[in-house]
Amino acid sequence: MDFQAFIFCGRGAKLTPFSNVRGDTGVPKALLPVANRSMIEFVLDWCEQAQFKEVNLVIDASDADELEESLKKYREVRGHYFGLLSQSVGSNHAHYLKKPSPINIIPSKCENTGECLKNELLDKITGDFVLLPCDFITDIPPQVFLDQYLNKDPENLAMAVYYHNGFENIDKKHLKQFLTVYSENLESVSKPVLLDVYSKDDVDKTKYLQIRSQMLWRYPNSSVSTKLLNSFIYFCSHELVNLLKDETEKGAGELDSDSEAVDSLATSFQNTSFLKGKKKLIKDPINCNKSLGKLFRDLSRRSWQHVKPRETIGIFVLPEIGLFIRSNSLSAYMESNRYVLKIKQTAIQQRTTDGSSAIGADSMVGNNCAILEKTNIKRSVLGDNCKVGKRCRIVGCVVLDNVEIDDETQLENVIIGRNAKIGKKSKLTNCYVEGSYIVNEKSTLKGETLTSIYIDDEDYASSLLDSDSSGSESDYTDEYYDDEDYVDDGLFDR
Amino acid sequence: MSGKKTKSGKANQNKKQEVVQDERLQAIVLTDSFETRFMPLTSVKPRCLLPLANIPLIEYTLEFLAKAGVNEVYLICASHGEQIQEYIDQSKWSLPWAPFKVNTIMSLESRSVGDAMRDVDNRGLITGDFVLVSGDLVTNMDFEKALDIHKQRRKADKDHIVTMCLSKATQFHKTRSHEPATFIFDKSNDRCIYYQDIPLASSREKTTIDIDPELLEGVDEFVLRNDLIDCHVDICSPHVPAIFQENFDYQFLRRDFVRGVLSSDLLKKHIYGYITDEYTTRAESWQTYDAISQDFIARWCYPLVLNANLLKGQTYSYESQHIYKEKDVVLAQSCKIKKNTAIGSGSKIGEGTVIENSVVGRNCKIGSNIRIKNSYIWDNVVIDDNTTIEHSLVASDVKLGSNVTLNDGSIIGFNVVIDDNVTIPVGTKISAVPVQRNTAQFLDTAHNLSSSDEDEEGSTFTRNSSSLSISNSDEVADAKIKLSKQLVGPNGRGVLYESDDEDEDEDGSTEKGIANTLTYRDDDIYLSDTSISSITQKHRKRRTMSMTSIYTDYEGEEDEEEDFEKEAIATVERAIENNHDLDTSMLELNTLRMSMNVTYHEVRNASVIAIFRRVYHFVATQTLGPKDAVTKVLQQWGPVFKRQAFDSDEFIDLMNIILDRVLDQKFDKPDFILFHVYNVLYDLDILEEDVIYKWWDSVSGDSKYSEVTALLAKWVDWLKTADEESSDEEDSDEDE
């Protein structure tokens, strides 16, 4: 497929303390392992399946090197397999094989994804493109998405992909709820379109869900879902690039919702575009200084809020048969680990280290681990170079690399960061232990997040807001609707 | 334990269901709509007896109820109850073999649906589930299906009290009520979550539907429907009248009752919707009357059609092209009856007459060479030769002279006589006798009006207009009679009926006017709406956007701007009073401007008004002389205009505003004030000579301003001739 894929590697604010948003005990979000493979590799595999023309990883400039480093191995393996494959196919049929598409890394300096798209990516885009998050795992093949996109209506600028959460165990509190307004267009031939998105928190804060009557005149039968979640996957047409690109001759002075002036500007072009049989794109000033989720919300609003209908944003709700999960919060991260474990359960062989210790088939243990006797590991992932003492019980945990767990420890639903140490006879339930943290002996903890203190906690709390789209975001006012959701949508990094 | 509970609950429900099944199905028909939309005709006859395609409206409703298998019908009558009683007594419905017994309930004191329902409750009529319909329903809906669904839901949800039957259409459907409303349903079970009226699509107002998030709790997905025709067929449980009783402030079925029940924390009752795609609608305004007549003639409502001859003694036969004729129609040889036409028995049609898309009642005498198009002629109408009737309604017993022209949207009331050679202008409503407003009838209408008025219009207006009509009625009556003579000709009989809505129409707000006339204008707007986008909307937008024309002032709807105006004036006044600096006040104004989405024109307007009020205050309290007052206020606040106007067109607009507002403010010496204002602004370099000259060219000719421009003429001359003369001299000039 002639798509360019852009994978936005967020910093993983919601995955603290395991991402490197605070301090350096963590790793960049994209490199956080899910069942001992970094998250990004799942996405890359998926892209491989889709056979995109090129795959670009957009990552914060400071993390680019680390990512590059870890991708080395992935590329190697990929190259290796390709070599093997082409050998076995033989030279006669080599042209059937497609060379693996290049994987580039684009270091980004922007505060948020929208700005990044506009300033850093637009020039690189040559045709239709796909925007992806770095944290999704799905068993829905990319062909399903592509088919859906290719059958889109001509007036669709882009297609947003939404999904229903199929995992009951993900803590509802951690899922930010959204009210997604869309129209199924049942009465017409058009495909479903996305109309608007409100965050539940904002609605609760303002006491009212305000639906513009204007929209109802254009889409009289629209639905609102409280359960749909944004997958952050956007299939976009090249037209979007034209729309977002700045035209140099036009100043920014027209931001005052003077769409009329723009209208007349557009009409002057209309004659020529009429011959092409395609509607001239009406260039409304669109502020990109926000996360992509908000940007696409604005684009979908743009489709109905003008007198002349504009291009629409399609919506594709993933079928509920398939599973789709984004590791964008700690509980979702845990759940995705378990999901992968479940898939691998059958494939993985029982591994026994010491006589009487047991590692369930539903668990996974990395290289160079030492697990002493009478230790039970169930539904858990252990990273590389871990040491687990005697008579431990580890259930439903995610343990990253180089962790030492002392004797007679009981862990349940715990995520333990790199280089952490858990003291003897500790008992942890539903805890998060930051990397390099040392849990004292015999501590009994429930539902706590253990972090080393080196940043003012207040400070830290504020940075908890979506890292990719915080900052200038909040004091920015929409040009069309002085928005009620002054707080960040956090669509990107949910 | 819970299992036990549900079991017993189920048993209960089963029992209940049996009881319900045993009960007879009752129907409450609200014959009065408690509205004045069909005035002036409804001052003589109740709405439900007005004929639609030669059949009184109530017949459609009763026919529907008969088909629905209703056993008892209660007609709740308010105004003209005796006429309804009389009609029912003589109709087939009081024959011994009628499918149900029709009881007329005189509820003469009722002023709203709520009152009527409370009356129903007081009388204890209701024994079980009942159907609540209005007396103007036209439908071929399969009611049993709806009733089944109602019963099923009732079984599943014992808090379920009402099922509203709604019909699927499009958002711009012509028979959609002109008070469009949005229903919000739970997608999974069609439970109504919320209800809200919204302004028409052509309205420039930016409104939102505000849904309380509490209502959405536990709802995964819900739909917002703005494409439903609300035909007011509700299947209600016996609780409904009681709820009206408890909430004595409920007036309207939808706006008060439905919304009230849905948003009440205490009641915890549920309302469901039943959405059908059969033909269901209400004749609740001229516009829908028109649309339904056309649909009915075109057999959309089959099997409910004209040649089913619903009435005793009707003898309609159907011919191709939707032409219906009764027996004993006398047609002249050369007359042409074109498509979609119905003619009642005993009517005579003369030579060369063309009738198209129209309904003609019984015993009409229609002369020769008459054109009747898209019109409704009721019974016993006499029309003389060479008359043209275009998209109008002529009620019973009207006499139209020869060479009369009825233009689009005319409504000629009962017994009106129109003399020869008269042309009735577009959208005129004429009644034979002045509609008495001071009587009880008036109270009725006034009450209804104020309540039937949309929120958007605000009831203040209605109050004004009604009080106006009381105070003036005597003096105005004479003048009106004179005016009416002009209208209907010297030998005519009839007075112009001016509905309150129409007054408003003249004020420039078209919304209400559209809603309540038969004229084509509304059709146009609806059409343009359907064609992808509302051109009208755009048109208006552009008007206000252009900011240059003074017309904007008159063109735009008052309501939105008024809000802004009030707020903005208050803002500026506050600023002046508290001596804010310019930046702060401008910031406030700008915020206001953006949030209300108005143009700078309105901002200027508001600032000007506020400034003049200040000046007026100084002058009136005699703290300062007019000249000093102007100078003082403007020295400080004049520069604000620099940030509200940016090019010469806008400055001209500003000058126009100043001119108008000075006149509005009613100063003692408007010309003097005006001159000073302009002069100070000129001195402050806010107004440039070029702008002044340009503006002067456009204004000087206008006779409206002649009283104030004399002085200005001097000033402008002075500007033109003397380049750099001091203003002192000018002062002495005008002191003379």
UniProtKB/TrEMBL annotation, chain A:
SUPFAM superfamilies: Nucleotide-diphospho-sugar transferases. One of its GO terms (biological process) is cytoplasmic translational initiation. Residues 353-437 form the EIF2B subunit epsilon/gamma LbH domain. It is found in: Cytoplasm, Cytosol. GO terms for cellular component: cytosol; eukaryotic translation initiation factor 2B complex. It holds the Pfam family LbH_EIF2B. It comes from the Eukaryota. Keywords: Cytoplasm, Initiation factor, Protein biosynthesis. Gene3D superfamilies: Hexapeptide repeat proteins, Spore Coat Polysaccharide Biosynthesis Protein SpsA, Chain A. GO terms for molecular function: guanyl-nucleotide exchange factor activity; translation initiation factor activity. Component of the translation initiation factor 2B (eIF2B) complex which is a heterodecamer of two sets of five different subunits: alpha, beta, gamma, delta and epsilon. Subunits alpha, beta and delta comprise a regulatory subcomplex and subunits epsilon and gamma comprise a catalytic subcomplex. Within the complex, the hexameric regulatory complex resides at the center, with the two heterodimeric catalytic subcomplexes bound on opposite sides. Belongs to the eIF-2B gamma/epsilon subunits family. This is Translation initiation factor eIF2B subunit gamma. It comes from Kluyveromyces lactis (strain ATCC 8585 / CBS 2359 / DSM 70799 / NBRC 1267 / NRRL Y-1140 / WM37). The lineage of its organism: Eukaryota, Fungi, Dikarya, Ascomycota, Saccharomycotina.
TrEMBL record, chain B:
The keyword Heme does not apply. Keywords: Cytoplasm, Initiation factor, Protein biosynthesis. One of its GO terms (cellular component) is cytosol. The keyword 4Fe-4S does not apply. Residues 448-469, 492-515 are annotated as: Disordered. It is found in: Cytoplasm, Cytosol. Residues 498-508 have a biased composition (Acidic residues). It comes from the Eukaryota. Residues 558-729 form the W2 domain. GO terms for molecular function: guanyl-nucleotide exchange factor activity; translation initiation factor activity; translation initiation factor binding. Component of the translation initiation factor 2B (eIF2B) complex which is a heterodecamer of two sets of five different subunits: alpha, beta, gamma, delta and epsilon. Subunits alpha, beta and delta comprise a regulatory subcomplex and subunits epsilon and gamma comprise a catalytic subcomplex. Within the complex, the hexameric regulatory complex resides at the center, with the two heterodimeric catalytic subcomplexes bound on opposite sides. Belongs to the eIF-2B gamma/epsilon subunits family. This is Translation initiation factor eIF2B subunit epsilon. It comes from Kluyveromyces lactis (strain ATCC 8585 / CBS 2359 / DSM 70799 / NBRC 1267 / NRRL Y-1140 / WM37).
